[in-house]
Amino acid sequence: MDPVMEKALEQLQDLYKDLDKEIGELQKQSGLHCPPGCGFCCQRPTREIEATILEMIPAALALIEEGQGSFFRDRAQEAGEAGRCVFYSPINEATFSGTCGRYTFRPLVCRLFGFGAIKNKQGKLEISYSIVMKKTLATVLDSTDKKLTEGMMAPLYSDYGTRLRGIDSPWTQDSYPLNLALQKALEWVFLRQRYS
Fold this sequence. Notes:
This protein is mainly alpha-helical. It has helices at 3-30, 53-65, 69-79, 108-112, 131-136, 138-149, 157-166, 178-194, and strands spanning 50-52, 88-92, 97-100, 117-119, 125-127, 175-177. It has one domain (3-194).
């Protein structure tokens, strides 16, 4: 593999490990979690969910190794920006339930949703909860919000986005709708394999 890409992927994995640790601590302190089987955030068109090419390279490598690279490249191209993520498998559309077929390889935005915070105008942390979380976890969310005002920490979208952009790689400079980012990642890996 390209040494620049290899180093970038190591840095990406380090970022994800740090985020997983921070989310784990938040969950332990607050009880915050996604409702079982919830796929609400995955049902949006991918033009609303962006990722960098680097974030999609691990999934691309795994798909190609499994012999599914061409299939998913074509699926991503067909679904386009208006379609939902090609990894999402709906179970029940009415209840927003479904699963991610590549959960291990999900990009940063997917990892942060429901756990990532922003700072409001007063400098206080606020987490963006899904509609499903608000309906099913009201008590937990109220408690989490209270703990945030009392100083409990949560991963910041801005901090992790800055870290991602700070990875010295041409594959982190631009974000694309999720399916397009996957398509570009698959094409990059296919091209590398063809000429190496």
